[in-house]
Write a structure and sequence with these properties.
about 50% helix, alpha+beta, single chain, three-stranded mixed sheet, six-stranded antiparallel sheet
Amino acid sequence: MAIVRGVSDREKQRWQDRESRRRFDQQRKPGAARRRGKGQRGSAFSPFFRIADRLGLKAHKNGDTSVMEGTRHTAQVKVVRTRTGTGRARWQVTIHHDRMAPDLALAPESVFKRMRKLFTGDDLQTGDKAFDDAVHITGSPAETLALLRAGVRKDLGRALDSGAVIRNQALTLDIDMDYGGRGWFTRLRRLTSLVVALLPRSGPVEQRLIRNALADTHPGTRLANVRAAWQLAPESVLERRDHLGQCPLIVAWFLHELDETVEPAHLRDLDAAVADPEFPADLRAWACGELAEAPMASRSAGALAVMLASLDATDVRIEIARQLEQRGDRRAVELLVELSSGLFRSSQLKEAARRAVASIMRRTGSEQEGTLTLTSAGEAEGGLSDVGAVDGVGEVSLSE
């Protein structure tokens, strides 16, 4: 660089600043320099200001505090980043929208919320057990369920895992992390899109619930949407019954709700519904009773295990145990071991349960190497034990 004489130091510094900005603008995408606001030119090198620029937000700095705020996708976004003395930064994000339902609240499940739910029952259930166990939901049941589509539940799970909370028409996130802006552009963009996805949509709620039931792949959520739509407009649900009937849980619910006769063609759907862990508990006893009226030989191993736990009739339990002896799996072992003893249980039931356990363990093998022995130690005792192998060969034996 040529030496310029007769120029003040202040003018030299201005020229160097202009030259630095020019080189920086050349490295950016075409048009980026024009999109950047005039007030941000001096801070263009800061990652925080570059994030604000890409999101279309205004940014300013005051000491160790940087703020970006503005409107993105009709939502009011405000991000405050405060630098701490340890070199870390606290990011405080608030994304507010006036159209969000005032009573909607979503937060990570906690011990306190679980205890409160036992007494008040104010936690909305979507039918997705993994999501319901992780997230505490309050709000208008039908409208909230219509909003929580599969994609929204996935994004919510990611946001709440990072510490976000949704209440009072806003999403808030307060998080400490290393100083810098890496990853925050994507994070803020996703959080804003999530808030927009939680806005009430146009059209009848029951129609949106039915669309969710048709599009969702989770059987429990599909059934929850159908049941919510039924409470609002049963005729609309009946009009789409043929399309909704592809889900066994919904088929079983229709049979129960309409008090229809369970035809042989329905038994396969009823069997699959009972074996599904998402099948509602209030329908399980009814479904098991209907399946008990049909031949046991056509029942699946999963359905037989559920029927064994739901039905109390001794003769039915004996027949189920005999079926499990032939084709049962480990899901039924724990209950069968319990039924193999007891002072007031039928000796035929205990014998059938013992033989079923021995047969299942023989087919599936022991979790440990050795011999599985089911012993009877009196009317009130008895159980399954795992003992050492004989001659190096593991086998199952039934002894009295």
